[in-house]
Amino acid sequence: xxxxxxxxxxxxxxxxxxxxxxxxxxxxxxxxxxxxxxxxxxxxxxxxxxxxxxxxxxxxxxxxxxxxxxxxxxxxxxxxxxxxxxxxxxxxxxxxxxxxxxxxxxxxxxxxxxxxxxxxxxxxxxxxxxxxxxxxxxxxxxxxxxxxxxxxxxxxxxxxxxxxxxxxxxxxxxxxxxxxxxxxxxxxxxxxxxxxxxxxxxxxxxxxxxxxxxxxxxxxxxxxxxxxxxxxxxxxxxxxxxxxxxxxxxxxxxxxxxxxxxxxxxxxxxxxxxxxxxxxxxxxxxxxxxxxxxxxxxxxxxxxxxxxxxxxxxxxxxxxxxxxxxxxxxxxxxxxxxxxxxxxxxxxxxxxxxxxxxxxxx
Amino acid sequence: xxxxxxxxxxxxxxxxxxxxxxxxxxxxxxxxxxxxxxxxxxxxxxxxxxxxxxxxxxxxxxxxxxxxxxxxxxxxxxxxxxxxxxxxxxxxxxxxxxxxxxxxxxxxxxxxxxxxxxxxxxxxxxxxxxxxxxxxxxxxxxxxxxxxxxxxxxxxxxxxxxxxxxxxxxxxxxxxxxxxxxxxxxxxxxxxxxxxxxxxxxxxxxxxxxxxxxxxxxxxxxxxxxxxxxxxxxxxxxxxxxxxxxxxxxxxxxxxxxxxxxxxxxxxxxxxxxxxxxxxxxxxxxxxxxxxxxxxxxxxxxxxxxxxxxxxxxxxxxxxxxxxxxxxxxxxxxxxxxxxxxxxxxxxxxxxxxxxxxxxxx
Lengths: 362, 362
What we know:
Chains A, B: It comes from marine sediment metagenome. Chains A, B: Keywords: Aminotransferase, Pyridoxal phosphate, Transferase. The structure is a homodimer. Chain A has helices at 6-23, 37-48, 62-73, 91-98, 122-131, 151-154, 180-187, 198-204, 219-235, 237-257, 285-296, 323-339, 348-361, and strands at residues 29-33, 54-59, 77-82, 105-109, 111-112, 117-118, 135-139, 158-160, 174-178, 261-262, 274-278, 301-302, 311-315. Chain A is of the alpha/beta class. In chain A, the strands form 3 sheets. Chain A has a 7-stranded mixed sheet, sandwiched between helices. The first copy, chain A, has a 4-stranded antiparallel sheet with strand order 10-11-13-12, covered by helices on one side. In chain A, strand 2, helix 3 (62-73) and strand 3 (77-82) form a beta-alpha-beta unit. The radius of gyration of chain A is 21 Å and the shape is globular. At the A-B interface, helix 2, helix 3, helix 9 and strand 12 of A face helix 2, helix 3 and helix 9 of B.
């Protein structure tokens, strides 16, 4: 059936309603954009940033840098808060940045996938941004469905995510949400994009009303998103976030027992779904990653940006955040490290994780 | 497996090679953009059109209008050739347009899906555009895989298509192709889009070389495209185009026998894959379309733009261009028209089509 068929529209309405639950928002404009995660970023910029706007961008990893690049391509001025990679911004730093001038928006990444850093104090940051009359824009690509994203409570004016992270759906859509304040800003002018023009796209995702064709929706991806969201809500947000935290809490001492060290120094600023770690000395990271993929069928991400070739990014996202996967991963790495003579006992990582699981179950 | 895995990269390379065969081009830069058909349009504009450029856009339907809108959003000046819907532009009209000024590009739609008009004289138009030092940019959304698209022979500098038309793949990718002249123009500056920046995307689709991550590719869609292209080439381009022409040649007198009239008056300017027709008098088009969908499981498109509510758009694309489907469609419409007392014999459309099939087989 086609992308304007009434049966398909029912699927769209349901997907929208479920997305609102995940984003913990009442925002009417909560829809998937027809592109991968970064297309949501570009949608926010094309619709909400005017040329000559001054935009504060927190840069603490690859994705903050990408936002800054996009904002400046659309003709706005970027004021960077440049941080050491692996750290997050403090409310104090944001307050200080706003003290210097008037800015139109603040853009930050909640879960920086390149470093595993988890932005804290979101509510407080939201308050500072609003006191200064700016829009609070958030990259929730890796956080949505894996940890709290409280759009309304935190005062986030607009956010975007991806489907292939904690929703466990193939890549290809970017769920976004905008509140009325953001919608008013975008309605004041024509978007500097046709494909991402939310004023027109809104008329296609027009709940309960006549739908107006904009572009052909990637319908198969919307079916997949619908099913992914259904599974998230079936598990329940609370249970899902707890599961992510529990498995992260077990993986962490396991990796440390094997000699890995986290890029993010402060434990409370580490993401539960993405573990970015330096390897023990004396290992060629690319070769080791390939061996683990070939021998144990486990795929590990390489470092991004300045960590390329220096670190690993281990995902424990959505359906793959399980006790079984944590165990298999630690045992596989243990076997390889033993072969390289780095450790004597291949099971020490696994044992460290088991201890955590046993304690949390008792 | 991930979007940077060597096994996936093999699929990418094969998809690229097959796309070149469909586009009949040697262009290295022949790749699918991560969005639906219109995202290819936006990619060409964001990468090839500078602000203050003067761009001639042929407007003979919805999609020409969309191109003009996009070009102007990116700050360029649009010079329209406004034509009656259902007609195509002549080389003489293009020559005349170029006589007035210097222009940077000419943009036209090869297969205008809103009217069923098939642009003719592509090679001659390409020559005129190049004599005037401009880029020749073509929308091949509905044409690719259903009728000839000869990028190199016709001198097309850049083109885009979609997957859900004659490739019979779900919507979600936009295959594009750019020649060296177009690549030189885009390399001269930074694209006014991050998501569609071909300079960066090129480094991900970097045949035979190191791949650089840009955005996570919609891998499931690329698998689907790969399979769709494989099936097109298995059938063979010549056989496939002939099949489209044969079934169109049979549907046409069938629809006319039932009292339908084509929007495109000149028979040689009608597309084989899209039949846009006015209904016989005394029928409510929406209701009739719904009945045919509910009773016979056949989906017909409504009119677009100025033909909304006034005409039908019947697709005979890719796998659905078959003799069986032509017959079922004409019989279904015939039944419904008989119920409404518009015709006495429900089979007259079918019979007219049969006559054509019999003659072409003898």
